[in-house]
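To close the section, here is one more complete example, presented without commentary so you can practise reading it yourself. The ligand is threonylcarbamoyladenylate.
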Amino acid sequence: VHTEVADGQSPDNRAATVAAAVALLRAGETVALPTETVYGLAADALNPDAVLKIFAAKERPRFDPLIVHVPTFDWLRRVARLNGEDSDIASRLAENFWPGPLTLVFPRTDLIADVVTAGLDTVAVRMSAHPLFSDVLRAFAKPVAAPSANRFGRISPTAAAHVLDELNGRIPLIVDGGPTTHGIESTVVAVRGANIEILRPGPVTRSQLSVFAEIATTSTGKIEAPGQLRSHYAPRTQVVVAEDLEEFVGPPNVRCGLLVSTGKTVPSGFAEIRRLSETGDLREAASNLFRCLRELDQSGVDLIVAEAVRDHGLGSAIMDRLRRAAAAAGPARQS
Ligand code: TXA
Ligand code: MG
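Output:
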Protein backbone atom coordinates (compact mmCIF):
# COMPACT_ATOMS: atom_id res chain seq x y z
CA VAL A 1 0.00 0.00 0.00
CA HIS A 2 1.11 3.55 -0.62
CA THR A 3 0.83 5.63 2.57
CA GLU A 4 -0.28 9.19 1.96
CA VAL A 5 0.34 11.92 4.52
CA ALA A 6 -2.41 14.53 4.19
CA ASP A 7 -2.28 18.00 5.68
CA GLY A 8 -5.12 18.53 8.11
CA GLN A 9 -3.91 21.86 9.43
CA SER A 10 -3.98 24.49 6.72
CA PRO A 11 -7.43 25.97 6.07
CA ASP A 12 -7.00 25.18 2.34
CA ASN A 13 -6.56 21.44 2.79
CA ARG A 14 -8.43 20.65 5.97
CA ALA A 15 -11.88 19.91 4.53
CA ALA A 16 -10.53 17.70 1.75
CA THR A 17 -8.37 15.79 4.24
CA VAL A 18 -11.30 15.19 6.59
CA ALA A 19 -13.42 14.01 3.63
CA ALA A 20 -10.69 11.62 2.48
CA ALA A 21 -10.42 10.16 5.98
CA VAL A 22 -14.18 9.67 6.23
CA ALA A 23 -14.33 8.03 2.79
CA LEU A 24 -11.64 5.53 3.80
CA LEU A 25 -13.41 4.72 7.10
CA ARG A 26 -16.67 4.14 5.17
CA ALA A 27 -14.79 1.84 2.78
CA GLY A 28 -13.62 -0.27 5.75
CA GLU A 29 -10.03 0.96 5.68
CA THR A 30 -7.73 2.20 8.43
CA VAL A 31 -6.71 5.86 8.85
CA ALA A 32 -4.15 7.37 11.23
CA LEU A 33 -5.60 10.41 12.99
CA PRO A 34 -4.24 12.85 15.57
CA THR A 35 -5.84 12.93 19.02
CA GLU A 36 -4.91 15.25 21.88
CA THR A 37 -2.85 12.41 23.44
CA VAL A 38 -1.09 10.45 20.71
CA TYR A 39 -1.89 9.55 17.08
CA GLY A 40 -4.42 6.73 16.73
CA LEU A 41 -5.01 4.16 13.99
CA ALA A 42 -8.75 4.23 13.40
CA ALA A 43 -11.22 1.87 11.74
CA ASP A 44 -15.01 1.42 11.84
CA ALA A 45 -15.72 -0.16 15.26
CA LEU A 46 -18.87 -1.82 13.91
CA ASN A 47 -17.03 -3.53 11.04
CA PRO A 48 -14.94 -6.54 12.16
CA ASP A 49 -13.05 -6.79 8.85
CA ALA A 50 -11.99 -3.15 9.11
CA VAL A 51 -10.88 -3.62 12.73
CA LEU A 52 -8.81 -6.68 11.76
CA LYS A 53 -6.78 -4.39 9.50
CA ILE A 54 -5.69 -2.44 12.60
CA PHE A 55 -4.35 -5.62 14.21
CA ALA A 56 -2.58 -6.56 10.98
CA ALA A 57 -0.94 -3.14 10.42
CA LYS A 58 0.25 -2.91 14.03
CA GLU A 59 1.15 -6.61 14.32
CA ARG A 60 -0.91 -6.41 17.47
CA PRO A 61 -1.89 -9.68 19.16
CA ARG A 62 -5.62 -10.34 19.00
CA PHE A 63 -5.88 -10.67 22.80
CA ASP A 64 -5.17 -6.95 23.24
CA PRO A 65 -8.47 -4.99 23.24
CA LEU A 66 -8.88 -1.63 21.46
CA ILE A 67 -10.34 1.64 22.70
CA VAL A 68 -13.65 2.66 21.11
CA HIS A 69 -13.84 6.39 20.32
CA VAL A 70 -17.35 7.80 20.18
CA PRO A 71 -18.45 10.80 18.10
CA THR A 72 -21.12 12.02 20.56
CA PHE A 73 -22.33 11.32 24.13
CA ASP A 74 -25.43 9.41 23.03
CA TRP A 75 -23.17 6.67 21.61
CA LEU A 76 -21.95 5.85 25.12
CA ARG A 77 -25.26 4.15 25.98
CA ARG A 78 -25.24 2.28 22.71
CA VAL A 79 -21.83 0.70 23.25
CA ALA A 80 -21.78 0.45 27.08
CA ARG A 81 -24.24 -0.80 29.70
CA LEU A 82 -24.67 1.84 32.37
CA ASN A 83 -26.55 0.86 35.50
CA GLY A 84 -25.85 0.80 39.20
CA GLU A 85 -23.61 2.90 41.42
CA ASP A 86 -20.44 2.31 39.45
CA SER A 87 -22.14 3.55 36.30
CA ASP A 88 -23.21 6.71 38.11
CA ILE A 89 -19.59 7.45 38.94
CA ALA A 90 -18.48 6.50 35.45
CA SER A 91 -21.01 8.76 33.77
CA ARG A 92 -19.99 11.62 36.03
CA LEU A 93 -16.39 11.05 34.99
CA ALA A 94 -17.45 11.11 31.34
CA GLU A 95 -19.42 14.31 31.84
CA ASN A 96 -16.45 15.97 33.50
CA PHE A 97 -13.53 14.82 31.40
CA TRP A 98 -15.03 14.27 27.95
CA PRO A 99 -14.12 15.20 25.38
CA GLY A 100 -10.60 14.66 26.68
CA PRO A 101 -7.80 12.27 27.64
CA LEU A 102 -9.78 9.83 29.82
CA THR A 103 -10.78 6.30 28.80
CA LEU A 104 -13.49 4.52 30.77
CA VAL A 105 -14.02 0.77 30.89
CA PHE A 106 -17.69 -0.29 31.01
CA PRO A 107 -19.66 -3.53 30.62
CA ARG A 108 -20.39 -3.67 26.91
CA THR A 109 -23.38 -4.10 24.63
CA ASP A 110 -23.38 -6.38 21.57
CA LEU A 111 -23.08 -3.51 19.12
CA ILE A 112 -19.29 -3.41 19.07
CA ALA A 113 -17.53 -6.13 17.08
CA ASP A 114 -16.08 -8.91 19.31
CA VAL A 115 -12.64 -8.46 17.82
CA VAL A 116 -12.53 -4.90 19.21
CA THR A 117 -12.77 -6.02 22.84
CA ALA A 118 -10.72 -9.18 22.34
CA GLY A 119 -13.69 -11.18 23.57
CA LEU A 120 -13.91 -9.30 26.90
CA ASP A 121 -17.36 -8.45 28.26
CA THR A 122 -16.16 -4.89 28.82
CA VAL A 123 -15.36 -2.07 26.41
CA ALA A 124 -12.96 0.86 26.81
CA VAL A 125 -14.59 4.10 25.62
CA ARG A 126 -13.20 7.54 25.02
CA MET A 127 -14.23 10.79 23.33
CA SER A 128 -11.34 12.75 21.85
CA ALA A 129 -11.18 16.53 22.08
CA HIS A 130 -8.93 16.88 19.02
CA PRO A 131 -10.79 19.04 16.47
CA LEU A 132 -9.63 16.96 13.47
CA PHE A 133 -10.46 13.69 15.17
CA SER A 134 -13.89 14.85 16.26
CA ASP A 135 -14.68 16.37 12.84
CA VAL A 136 -13.84 13.06 11.16
CA LEU A 137 -15.92 11.14 13.71
CA ARG A 138 -18.93 13.39 13.46
CA ALA A 139 -18.91 13.21 9.67
CA PHE A 140 -18.47 9.44 9.85
CA ALA A 141 -21.27 9.39 12.45
CA LYS A 142 -20.17 6.09 14.01
CA PRO A 143 -17.62 5.03 16.63
CA VAL A 144 -14.14 3.97 15.57
CA ALA A 145 -11.74 1.60 17.26
CA ALA A 146 -8.36 3.31 17.56
CA PRO A 147 -5.24 2.15 19.37
CA SER A 148 -2.06 4.19 19.24
CA ALA A 149 -0.67 4.23 15.67
CA ASN A 150 2.60 2.39 16.36
CA ARG A 151 3.68 -1.18 15.82
CA PHE A 152 2.83 -3.31 18.85
CA GLY A 153 4.96 -2.71 21.93
CA ARG A 154 6.72 0.33 20.51
CA ILE A 155 6.70 4.03 21.37
CA SER A 156 3.40 5.80 20.68
CA PRO A 157 3.54 8.42 17.90
CA THR A 158 3.06 12.08 18.78
CA ALA A 159 3.60 13.44 15.25
CA ALA A 160 2.61 12.36 11.74
CA ALA A 161 6.26 11.62 10.88
CA HIS A 162 6.38 9.11 13.77
CA VAL A 163 3.35 7.30 12.35
CA LEU A 164 5.03 7.17 8.95
CA ASP A 165 8.11 5.70 10.66
CA GLU A 166 5.99 2.98 12.22
CA LEU A 167 3.38 2.15 9.59
CA ASN A 168 4.66 3.29 6.19
CA GLY A 169 3.36 0.94 3.48
CA ARG A 170 0.82 -0.63 5.83
CA ILE A 171 -2.00 1.95 5.91
CA PRO A 172 -3.45 4.21 3.21
CA LEU A 173 -3.63 7.57 5.00
CA ILE A 174 -2.08 9.59 7.81
CA VAL A 175 -3.86 12.82 8.70
CA ASP A 176 -1.23 15.33 9.82
CA GLY A 177 -2.52 17.52 12.63
CA GLY A 178 0.89 18.58 13.94
CA PRO A 179 2.38 17.45 17.26
CA THR A 180 -0.13 16.22 19.85
CA THR A 181 -0.87 18.23 23.00
CA HIS A 182 -0.47 15.78 25.89
CA GLY A 183 2.12 13.50 24.28
CA ILE A 184 1.21 10.46 26.40
CA GLU A 185 -1.80 8.13 26.11
CA SER A 186 -5.09 8.71 27.89
CA THR A 187 -5.66 7.71 31.50
CA VAL A 188 -7.57 4.39 31.51
CA VAL A 189 -9.87 3.70 34.47
CA ALA A 190 -12.46 1.14 35.52
CA VAL A 191 -15.05 1.91 38.15
CA ARG A 192 -15.47 -0.97 40.62
CA GLY A 193 -18.35 -0.41 43.04
CA ALA A 194 -17.51 2.88 44.78
CA ASN A 195 -13.85 2.82 43.71
CA ILE A 196 -11.94 4.04 40.70
CA GLU A 197 -9.19 1.73 39.56
CA ILE A 198 -6.48 3.35 37.45
CA LEU A 199 -5.47 0.82 34.81
CA ARG A 200 -3.08 3.19 33.05
CA PRO A 201 -1.91 6.54 34.49
CA GLY A 202 -2.14 9.47 32.08
CA PRO A 203 -2.97 13.14 31.59
CA VAL A 204 -5.99 12.98 33.92
CA THR A 205 -4.27 12.51 37.27
CA ARG A 206 -5.09 10.54 40.39
CA SER A 207 -5.91 13.72 42.33
CA GLN A 208 -8.30 14.91 39.60
CA LEU A 209 -10.06 11.55 39.73
CA SER A 210 -10.16 11.39 43.53
CA VAL A 211 -12.74 14.17 43.54
CA PHE A 212 -15.25 11.65 42.17
CA ALA A 213 -14.50 8.47 44.16
CA GLU A 214 -11.91 6.63 46.20
CA ILE A 215 -8.97 5.49 44.15
CA ALA A 216 -8.49 1.75 44.63
CA THR A 217 -4.90 1.00 45.51
CA THR A 218 -5.13 -2.77 45.32
CA SER A 219 -4.78 -4.23 41.88
CA THR A 220 -6.21 -7.62 40.95
CA GLY A 221 -2.75 -8.47 39.68
CA LYS A 222 -4.08 -9.85 36.45
CA ILE A 223 -3.31 -8.00 33.24
CA GLU A 224 -6.48 -6.33 32.14
CA ALA A 225 -4.86 -3.59 30.12
CA PRO A 226 -1.85 -4.66 28.12
CA GLY A 227 -0.66 -1.11 28.72
CA GLN A 228 0.16 -2.90 31.96
CA LEU A 229 2.55 -5.32 30.27
CA ARG A 230 5.94 -4.42 31.66
CA SER A 231 7.61 -4.23 28.27
CA HIS A 232 5.35 -1.68 26.59
CA TYR A 233 6.72 1.56 25.09
CA ALA A 234 10.00 0.00 24.05
CA PRO A 235 12.66 1.86 22.11
CA ARG A 236 15.17 -0.40 20.33
CA THR A 237 17.91 0.97 22.56
CA GLN A 238 18.19 -0.20 26.16
CA VAL A 239 16.80 2.29 28.69
CA VAL A 240 17.79 2.67 32.34
CA VAL A 241 16.07 4.96 34.81
CA ALA A 242 18.49 6.87 37.05
CA GLU A 243 17.12 8.08 40.38
CA ASP A 244 20.15 10.31 40.89
CA LEU A 245 22.09 11.48 37.83
CA GLU A 246 25.08 12.64 39.87
CA GLU A 247 25.55 9.07 41.07
CA PHE A 248 25.11 7.48 37.68
CA VAL A 249 28.20 5.78 36.33
CA GLY A 250 27.89 4.57 32.75
CA PRO A 251 29.44 1.27 31.72
CA PRO A 252 32.87 1.74 30.07
CA ASN A 253 33.01 2.31 26.30
CA VAL A 254 29.27 2.73 25.97
CA ARG A 255 27.79 5.76 24.21
CA CYS A 256 25.10 7.06 26.52
CA GLY A 257 22.16 9.28 25.65
CA LEU A 258 20.51 11.31 28.38
CA LEU A 259 16.86 12.12 28.87
CA VAL A 260 16.50 14.79 31.53
CA SER A 261 13.31 16.53 32.61
CA THR A 262 14.68 20.02 33.30
CA GLY A 263 17.16 22.59 32.02
CA LYS A 264 19.64 21.99 34.86
CA THR A 265 23.37 21.36 34.39
CA VAL A 266 24.06 17.68 33.80
CA PRO A 267 27.20 15.55 34.26
CA SER A 268 29.51 15.48 31.25
CA GLY A 269 30.10 12.45 29.07
CA PHE A 270 26.70 11.99 27.43
CA ALA A 271 26.81 11.67 23.64
CA GLU A 272 23.27 12.99 23.15
CA ILE A 273 21.04 14.96 25.49
CA ARG A 274 17.31 15.62 25.25
CA ARG A 275 15.53 17.89 27.69
CA LEU A 276 11.82 17.38 28.29
CA SER A 277 11.30 20.92 29.60
CA GLU A 278 13.73 23.74 30.36
CA THR A 279 11.61 24.86 33.31
CA GLY A 280 10.74 21.39 34.61
CA ASP A 281 7.07 21.84 33.68
CA LEU A 282 5.46 18.38 33.76
CA ARG A 283 2.87 19.08 31.07
CA GLU A 284 5.58 20.19 28.69
CA ALA A 285 7.74 17.24 29.76
CA ALA A 286 4.96 14.73 29.02
CA SER A 287 4.26 16.29 25.64
CA ASN A 288 7.94 15.89 24.64
CA LEU A 289 8.55 12.47 26.23
CA PHE A 290 7.90 10.08 23.34
CA ARG A 291 9.44 12.40 20.73
CA CYS A 292 12.66 12.68 22.77
CA LEU A 293 12.77 8.93 23.42
CA ARG A 294 12.30 8.30 19.70
CA GLU A 295 15.05 10.79 18.81
CA LEU A 296 17.50 9.28 21.30
CA ASP A 297 16.60 5.82 20.00
CA GLN A 298 17.46 6.92 16.46
CA SER A 299 20.63 8.80 17.43
CA GLY A 300 22.77 5.68 17.55
CA VAL A 301 23.57 5.69 21.29
CA ASP A 302 24.04 2.32 23.01
CA LEU A 303 22.17 3.18 26.18
CA ILE A 304 19.49 5.72 27.09
CA VAL A 305 19.72 7.05 30.64
CA ALA A 306 16.41 8.56 31.72
CA GLU A 307 16.39 10.68 34.84
CA ALA A 308 13.53 9.82 37.20
CA VAL A 309 10.87 12.46 37.85
CA ARG A 310 8.82 12.77 41.02
CA ASP A 311 6.20 10.03 41.06
CA HIS A 312 3.24 12.31 41.62
CA GLY A 313 0.53 13.85 39.43
CA LEU A 314 1.56 13.85 35.78
CA GLY A 315 4.98 12.66 36.97
CA SER A 316 3.37 9.27 37.72
CA ALA A 317 2.29 8.92 34.09
CA ILE A 318 5.80 9.84 32.91
CA MET A 319 7.45 7.41 35.36
CA ASP A 320 5.04 4.67 34.23
CA ARG A 321 6.27 5.05 30.61
CA LEU A 322 9.94 5.27 31.66
CA ARG A 323 9.72 2.13 33.80
CA ARG A 324 8.07 0.19 31.01
CA ALA A 325 10.66 1.38 28.50
CA ALA A 326 13.40 0.27 30.91
CA ALA A 327 11.76 -3.12 31.49
CA ALA A 328 11.69 -3.97 27.81
CA ALA A 329 14.02 -6.65 26.59
CA GLY A 330 13.96 -6.19 22.83
CA PRO A 331 15.97 -8.57 20.65
CA ALA A 332 17.92 -5.61 19.21
CA ARG A 333 19.63 -4.75 22.45
CA GLN A 334 20.88 -8.27 23.09
CA SER A 335 23.11 -8.16 20.03
O1 TXA B 1 -4.73 8.13 24.29
C1 TXA B 1 -5.10 7.01 23.96
O2 TXA B 1 -5.75 6.26 24.72
C2 TXA B 1 -4.72 6.52 22.56
C3 TXA B 1 -5.47 7.39 21.54
C4 TXA B 1 -5.22 6.94 20.13
O3 TXA B 1 -6.83 7.38 21.82
N1 TXA B 1 -5.05 5.15 22.38
C5 TXA B 1 -4.34 4.16 22.96
O4 TXA B 1 -4.78 2.89 22.62
O5 TXA B 1 -3.42 4.36 23.71
P1 TXA B 1 -3.93 1.58 22.92
O6 TXA B 1 -4.65 0.48 22.26
O7 TXA B 1 -2.53 1.78 22.55
O8 TXA B 1 -4.10 1.40 24.46
C6 TXA B 1 -5.37 1.06 24.96
C7 TXA B 1 -5.27 0.50 26.33
C8 TXA B 1 -4.55 -0.81 26.29
O9 TXA B 1 -3.72 -0.89 27.41
C9 TXA B 1 -5.71 -1.79 26.35
O10 TXA B 1 -5.33 -3.01 26.89
C10 TXA B 1 -6.68 -1.05 27.25
O11 TXA B 1 -6.58 0.28 26.85
N2 TXA B 1 -8.03 -1.56 27.07
C11 TXA B 1 -8.76 -1.58 25.95
N3 TXA B 1 -9.95 -2.17 26.16
C12 TXA B 1 -9.97 -2.55 27.46
C13 TXA B 1 -10.91 -3.21 28.30
N4 TXA B 1 -12.10 -3.62 27.84
N5 TXA B 1 -10.58 -3.43 29.58
C14 TXA B 1 -9.38 -3.02 30.06
N6 TXA B 1 -8.46 -2.39 29.32
C15 TXA B 1 -8.73 -2.15 28.04
MG1 MG C 1 -0.55 1.64 22.40
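Once you have examined the C-alpha coordinates, check your reading against these statements. The chain has eleven helices and 15 strands. Residues 147-148, 156 surround magnesium ion (ligand 2) (CB under 6 Å).
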